[in-house]
Structures are given as structure tokens and as C-alpha cells.
Fold:
Amino acid sequence: MSQRPIQEIDDMAARWVARMDSDAWSDADDAELGAWLALDPRHGGALVQAQALWSTLGQEETVEADPDVVRVDDAPPPVWTRRWLLASGGGAIAASLVAGLVVLGGSERYDTGVGEIRRVPLADGSTAAINTDSRIAVAVAETRRDVRLEKGEAWFQVVKDPRRPFVVEAGNVRVQAVGTAFSVRRREGGADVIVTEGVVEAWANGAEGQKIRIVAGAMAFVADNAAVRRPEPGAPAVERALAWRSGKIDLVATRVDDAIAEFNRYNRRRIVLRDAAIADERVDGVFRTDDPVGFSRVIAGSFGGSVDLSGPEEIRIESEQVTEK
Amino acid sequence: MGTTQISNRERQRRRAAWVAKHVIPHEPFVRRWLRGARVPPEEIDELIQDGYCRFAMLDAVDHIERPDIYFFSMVRHQLGRRRKRARVVPIDTMSDLGEFVHDEAPSPEREVAGQLAFGRLKTMLEDLPERCRRIIEMRKFDGLSQREIASTLGITESMVENNIQAGLRQLRAAWAKDEALASEAFARLGEGGRRA
Structure:
């Protein structure tokens, strides 16, 4: 199936590495290298492998990352920035003055459409970041603050007020905070709770005796029947799970089908995987929630498929045999 | 990123540095897995090269946090694809060992892998012809440039380059055949103990 035997390509790659390593490297050499690389995709693979072996031998070159790459989100995904808090905090106070009268006694509802992420100030000065396709209802009263997460996911930065507990109701699951920041996401049969600051208590309605505490940097799934699942603790996982607040999806060794499901939360144009063989492969990367096409291309490029954009409703990831036409 | 044009050589060098750190140490491991799945040797070479090819093609690799898993995943996938094309029933061992590698090995494990790879390659140097080995050592460990090596040994620069090329080819072949590293890795992680 291959025109040139692999051995020959490997040998040429070794020649290039030795030449690149030499003191006499001209623009002409560089152009010739570019031309060779363009000739056959396998050339790039052979070259990077040979050269990587070469640099493994010299420790000096093995440290750096890929500096010609700009990571879109250079700062670590937000441990919610002070700046943002200040900016929105001002707004929150203003909004609470206006909204206060309306809110008394009643509840305020906020919706987001697919792909929309909204930040809203709540009447008590707290803020909510509401993820795609979600709905919350907020009722702030004298003695308590109640939020009902009717669907989807939201993150809350709660203003401290010991006299008025802040309780989020997500189906049968309850999460309570005093002054802290956390997110709640409704799932089939329960809710995910992720804490970014302080401590929350969570429980299933009717099982108040079995409250669990979740501390900053930790997450837990609380089932409607009060069962609790806690993954390994670790801040990176928490920050990753909340990357949506800056419009990102952050995947680490995530199954392809799970990653696609994640993208489809944010976009009306759905990604459809037509090659079941890819479903359980793993992907890594930080992607924009609004760029399902870019993500699909990475998947297709990594696992040898192609992307079909002909349908307005769907982005199809096809296996390569079907579409090469 | 359009600001300054970087040369092909520089681009290659950077990508290779990343691959050296994150992928090379795991190659013996993936090869070992392929051998376990009874893939013929020539096909293993093709699959591995194809795996490297994916890293060469990506515009950016910085965001890949688990290159070892990514690499393995691509190779395994490609194997499955070839098997399907060849209408051969997928092999059992695929899912079996697959999960093993997918285990979230802690990061110290991955750090160690890099050092082991370096040590292993150094040992392989000893099997090279005397002059070839000497030249590579001067270049890599003594930090001399090809030109400096040429004048020290009283040979031409192109002879130095040729020796490096030949040495690299041999190292690469040895690397592909190496059992020791993969066996160590399997032993360290507890082969069998973690199979599904």
C-alpha cells in the first residue's frame, strides 16, 4: 500500500536530522526540508521520531514545550479572578437596588439558550454564571436564599450572610453554602457539585441526616437517592470541569463520545459520530465551546476520519473509507 | 502565528523536543503491546510511524496533557481500522491490555519513563562502531558542534554528519527492538494485575 518502504523513509529522516544538527544550515536547506515534508505525510512522522530520539540523548533540549503555540487561555483556567468579581460585584449592587422591589416575595427566573453563557447578579449581591441550555429560579427572602436549578448547570459566587443560608435545589438534591463559590449541574438521577471556594453541604431531599461536606477543590455526585460518588480530589479536575465559564471545554483523556456529548450541550448544530470505532478512543485538549467544527476536525485528523459539513443541522464525523470521494 | 516566520528546522526542533519528552519514552511500551497483540513486525513499524505522524501533523500539541494515552489510543485505533479492513475479527487482547495502558498512571511514573529512556539510549550507544559512538558522545555529552568535532578529529564536517546519521539509524533500530524498557515498565506497573 505504501509507495516507498518505511525503511527508506526512516533513513532519509536520519539524514535530515544529522543535517539539521550541522553548523551549515542554509535557507536553501530549509526550503528543501519543507518540500520533503510536503511530499508525504509519513515524512513528518519519521522525522519527528528520529529527531526526538536524537534530542532524548541530549538532555538540554528536552525541557521546553511548544513555544510557537499560543494556548488560547494562557492563564490557568480561572480560579475566578478578582478582577471579574470586582467588575460584576459593582453591577450586582446596582442590580440589586433595581431588582429588589420586584424580587421581594416572588422569584426571578433566568434562562440560557443552547450555546449561551450568562452571568447574572442576584438580589443579595451574589452572582451566578449560568451555563448553556439552563434555567434557574432565584428567591431571596429575609431568612433564606433559594435557588432552584430547573435544568442545566450554574456556578454561584455567594456573598457571606450567616443569617440567610443559600440553598440550591437541583431535583432531589440540595446544596447549601454560607459564603463560598460552587457549581451545580443536573444530571440523570442526581447532580454534580463542584466547589471552588469555601465549603458546602449537600444532601438529597428527605435524607437531611446524611449531609456531606464538600470542600474547595473537590467535587461530588449526589444522587437523588442520597448515594454519593466522589472522584479523586484535585484542583485541576475542578478547574477543567468549570472551563465553560470562560467558554472552553477542557478534556483530558476523555472518551470521544463523552467529549462529543459535551460539545452538543453548547451547539444546535450537533456533532454526529458516524464511526462507532472512534467512540471509545481518548482525546486531550482545550477547545472553544462554540467551535464544534474545529473539534471535529481534530478528532477526524487524529483517528483517521473525515468531517462532513454538508448538512446544516449536523457535523458528521465519518470513517475514512466511506467519504473519500 | 504569523508574527515572525520561523524556519522549518526550528519548528521541527521544537516539536521534536516535545515528542522526546512526552512520547518517545512510551514507544517501547506501545510496541510491546502490539507484539502482545501478535501484530507482525513490519506492521508495528508502520503503526508506530503513523502514530508519530499524527503528532507531526497537529498544529499545536501544547494542550495535550496525556500524550502517552493519546499516542497509544491513536495507534490502537489505527490497528483496529486495519483489522476491520482486512476483515479479521478484532483481537481479544485489544480491549484487554487497552484498559491497562489507559489507567491513569501517576505523573511521577511518567517522569521516570523519560529518565529510563535516556539511560537506555545511552547503553545502546555502546553497541555503535567506535568512531560513530565517539562522535555522538562529543556532540551530545561534550557539547561540541559538528564543526568542532571535525577539527578535533581531523576529518571533514560531512564525515561527522554521516557518522551521526549512521549512528542515529542504528540507535533507532535498536530502540524499536528494545524489550528491556517495555518489560521494566510492565513490571513496575504490575502487568496482569490491572487487566480488566
In short: The mean pLDDT of chain A is 80. The first strand of chain A starts at residue 108 and ends at 111.
